[in-house]
Design brief:
The chain has 822 residues and is α/β, with parallel strands linked by helices. The protein folds into three domains: 1-72 and 90-121, no CATH class; 73-88 and 123-477 and 811-818, Glycogen Phosphorylase B (Rossmann fold, 3-Layer(aba) Sandwich); 481-804, 3-Layer(aba) Sandwich (Rossmann fold), CATH 3.40.50.2000. It has a nine-stranded mixed β-sheet with strand order 5-8-9-2-1-10-11-15-16, sandwiched between helices. The radius of gyration is 28 Å and the shape is globular. Residues 1-6 have low confidence and may be disordered. Its cofactor is pyridoxal 5'-phosphate.
């Protein structure tokens, strides 16, 4: 006993940041929380121990932040999003709480390299692309600028798929990010909420036969269980909460069925519950997938609304003050069913009449639109909606009657306007329009770039804007500079600190002081050295993941984003094919060495997007294996693009491809990340590119192609892509090579339909913009040859990107939408 006591590890002070004491704390955690001796601990054990030591400090501030919001009765923001693409949290939390370097030293004394174990932390597979990454940046910025907030979403077991390539084809595999547990999350079993589906609605009347209320009696329920993750703001000033819901069955094993021998039937309820939170965005090309998607959206929205009301009633005892104390923000249309759920709770559970409930809802909700693609504004078949959510269907009809009554009372509204405004689409199959529901129920509807907001008023919400002209406003997106410069690009961060001091770390506006170094030869040389180191890191990653060798001295030309025809990866591939032909035809020309790097996932049911990935890989194989190219051009598609990969690719980029069809990209945030890290943008005047151009200056960005107005005019005027293709020798040759099977000798017809689509309709204006894109790329080559000039422009991009901080965006949301002091 005495011997054991003498060898027991002393419990160190949880307040210390001294590396020696931190090392003791890590060992204590390893022994008594994980149950391992240091001599047998795995790298995952060290990772968990290091996280838990820092997490203790985070928890203290988390509790303090929550208590302060309660004591001061501060207004809270509730951010509802189907996606939170948070990536790895270790470096984010360690850095924001100011312990990254101390923990690095502490682990080093124990023989553990922090970078090695940090690489083991999985990316939380909770999002698909920009929508989810924006939500993650916003959560970090809300904590940074001291906005009390909860994020609400789904704790997907697998989330978005893990992407692998089989002979160049995308293969979707489960993303097992929870295999080793999640040391950042806390299960809150006490916050379990029963969520119903289906069933019937009964009317309850008083003694005189007057309607008192409706009672929804679902025929199937699941339990939503909360999992909380702390979100640390910069310097740890505030820690907010990301609450994700997991689904459990009400009755895990139906014992009577099991005992009767129906083993499959006994587990049916369990399987149905698990399906709700198993994957992000189930395929909705069939009715079963559509139903599961709607169930997911209602599940997390209803759990979140009931949680919000529970918290509000616990503090204030009534709901009339809800708009004054809670701002509920819907990130796109996915949570729009929350409108009907709040109305149901206010009327059916808490006894308010329709007018009062509608007034409370409109003053509480706000909605961010993220798309101008009509098909992306969700709608659900009335039959599916009514079968799953019969009471909510009644409420949607009631809201619709109110909105249409307002429209008919307004001068100048025709039947066509009424049809457009209606929450029920009557063209063909009757459908519930979730975008219209979100708009009607929100006091604020914002776009995410100046161009996008203007186009919203002109296109998808034109008639609703006529009815409610004061609701639409702009809040240009932003990114957190902590994640996307200070952590992802420590070399550049150190260089900027050396040049202008530390002020920009707390106030990103001060990075503008870097502008005066753009023409300083010594600084340019240091800037180039940082970029080179980042490119060498990227080259190593490319070789590890694909086997390709790429030259860090070549121009790194990068396009990383969701694979979609409007984002026009196809345009980029066609330019690569045309450049390949030119290099082979003109071997004596002074070509600029270039590496085209791609990354992104295609939705499993999106045939053309998956075909574009295959084409990129086929083109890559042909070009990279052709000795006549002499390494002057390489094409590499990085598999399984995610946040962690972006943190390597973005700092390495020389050229940022932002080439969507003008008028279709709402904003983009990748464009902001690249420019902040010293890449020059080549892009159309689309989304936030317009504002980036204004901030960095016309001379520091390369713009090409049709504007949004010109795209609309071409479509309205009978655009004929065939004539354009036949008038462009380079494009004709590239399309002919692809269509005839030059890049697919095993299947010469593989790309024929894809190429025929460009000849016959070309909705995304690939042919229309091709020659302008090629011309712009040759201008980029010319600029690259003048290294001092290129570096000056790259430095000015970094120096002039402060406007695109998500801190600025969140302050605007807080002041102009949520009415929260900042």
């Amino acid at each position: 006993m005495n011997q054991a006591m003498t060898t027991e590890l002393p419990r160190p002070s949880p307040k210390s940041s001294d590396p020696a004491e931190l090392a003791e704390e890590v060992l204590y955690c390893l022994t008594y929380r994980i149950g391992k001796n240091a001599s047998v601990a795995t790298r995952h054990d060290w990772l968990t121990a290091a996280i838990q030591v820092v997490r203790d400090r985070v928890i203290e501030r988390w509790i303090e932040s929550t208590k302060a919001a309660y004591d001061t009765k501060a207004k809270r923001v509730y951010y509802l999003s189907m996606e939170f693409l948070i990536g790895r949290l270790m470096r984010d939390a360690f850095s924001n709480i100011g312990m990254l370097e101390d923990m690095r030293k502490a682990l080093a004394t124990l023989g553990v390299d922090i970078e090695t174990i940090a690489a083991l932390e999985p990316d939380a597979a909770l999002g698909n692309g920009g929508l989810g990454r924006l939500a993650a940046c916003f959560m970090e910025s809300m904590a940074t600028v001291n906005v009390p907030a909860h994020g609400y979403g789904i704790r997907y077991v697998h989330g978005l798929f893990r992407q692998e390539f089989s002979d160049g084809w995308q293969v979707e595999l489960p993303e097992t990010w929870l295999d080793h547990g999640n040391p950042w999350e806390f299960e809150r079993r006490e916050r379990s909420i029963e969520i119903g589906f289906g069933g019937t609605v009964q009317s309850v009347t008083d003694a005189k036969g007057r309607l008192e209320r409706h009672v929804w009696k679902p025929n199937h329920s699941v339990i939503a269980v909360a999992y909380d993750t702390p979100v640390v703001g910069w310097r740890g000033a505030r820690v907010n909460t990301l609450r994700l819901w997991s689904a459990l069955p009400v009755d895990p094993i139906m014992l009577a069925a099991f005992n009767a021998g129906d083993h499959i039937g006994a587990l049916r309820e369990s399987n149905m519950a698990e399906a709700l939170t198993r994957v992000l965005y189930p395929a909705d090309s069939h009715i079963e997938g559509q139903e599961l998607r709607l169930r997911q959206e209602y599940f997390f929205s209803a759990a979140s609304l009931q949680d919000i009301i529970h918290r509000h009633l616990g503090q204030y005892g009534e709901l009339l003050s809800l708009p004054d104390k809670a701002a509920i923000h819907m990130n796109d249309t996915h949570p729009a069913i929350a409108v009907a759920e709040l109305m149901r709770l206010l009327m059916d559970v808490h006894g308010h009449d329709f007018d009062t409930a509608w007034d409370i809802s409109k003053r509480t909700f706000a909605y961010t639109n993220h798309t101008l693609l009509p098909e992306a504004l969700e709608s659900w078949p009335v039959t599916v909606f009514e079968r799953l959510l019969p009471r909510h269907m009644q409420i949607v009809y009631a809201i619709n009657a109110q909105v249409l009554h307002e429209a008919r009372a307004k001068e100048g509204f025709t039947d066509a306007h009424i049809r457009s405004i209606s929450l029920i689409g009557e063209d063909g199959e009757r459908r519930v329009r979730m975008g219209n529901l979100a708009f009607a129920a929100s006091h604020s509807i914002n776009g995410v770039s100046a161009l996008h907001t203007d186009l919203m008023k002109q296109t998808v919400f034109h008639d609703l804007h006529m009815l409610y002209p004061d609701r639409i406003n702009n809040k240009t997106n932003g990114i957190t500079p902590r994640r996307w410069m200070m952590q992802a690009n420590p070399g550049l961060t150190s260089l900027v600190r050396e040049a202008i001091g530390d002020g920009f770390l707390d106030d990103i506006e001060k990075i503008s002081e870097l502008d005066k170094f753009a023409d300083d030869a010594a600084f340019r040389e240091k800037f180039a050295a940082v970029k080179r180191a980042n490119k060498e890191r990227m080259a190593t990653l490319a070789h590890e993941r694909t086997g390709a060798w790429i030259d860090p001295s070549a121009m790194f030309d990068i396009q990383i984003k969701r694979i979609h025809e409007y984002k026009r990866q196809l345009l980029n591939i066609l330019e690569a094919v045309a450049l390949y032909d030119q290099i082979r035809s003109n071997p004596d020309k002074d070509w600029v060495p270039r590496v085209k790097l791609f990354g992104g996932k295609a939705a499993p049911s999106y045939h053309n997007a998956k075909l574009i990935i295959k084409l990129a890989n086929d083109v890559s194989r042909a070009i990279n294996g052709d000795p006549s190219v002499r390494g002057l051009l390489k094409v590499v598609f990085m598999p399984n693009y995610n946040v962690s990969m972006a943190e390597v690719m973005v700092p390495s980029a020389d050229l940022s491809e932002q080439i969507s069809t003008a008028g279709l990209e709402a904003s983009g945030t990748g464009n902001m990340k690249f420019a902040l890290n010293g890449a020059i943008t080549i892009g159309t005047l689309d989304g936030a590119n317009v504002e980036i151009k204004e901030c960095v200056g016309d001379d520091n960005i390369v713009i090409f192609g049709l504007t949004a107005e010109e795209v609309a005019e071409r479509r309205a005027g009978g655009y004929e892509p065939r004539a354009i293709i036949e008038g462009s020798p380079e494009l004709s040759q590239a399309l002919s090579a692809i269509s005839s099977g030059v890049f697919s000798p095993d299947d010469p017809n593989r790309y024929r339909d894809l190429i025929d689509g460009l000849y016959n309709h070309d909705w995304f204006m690939v042919a229309a913009d091709f020659d302008a894109f090629c011309k712009a790329q040759r201008e980029v080559d010319q600029l690259w040859r003048n290294s001092p000039q290129w570096l000056s422009k790259a430095i000015r991009n970094t120096a002039r990107m402060a406007f695109f901080s998500s801190d600025r965006t969140i302050r605007q949301y807080a002041r102009e939408i949520w009415n929260v002091p900042v």
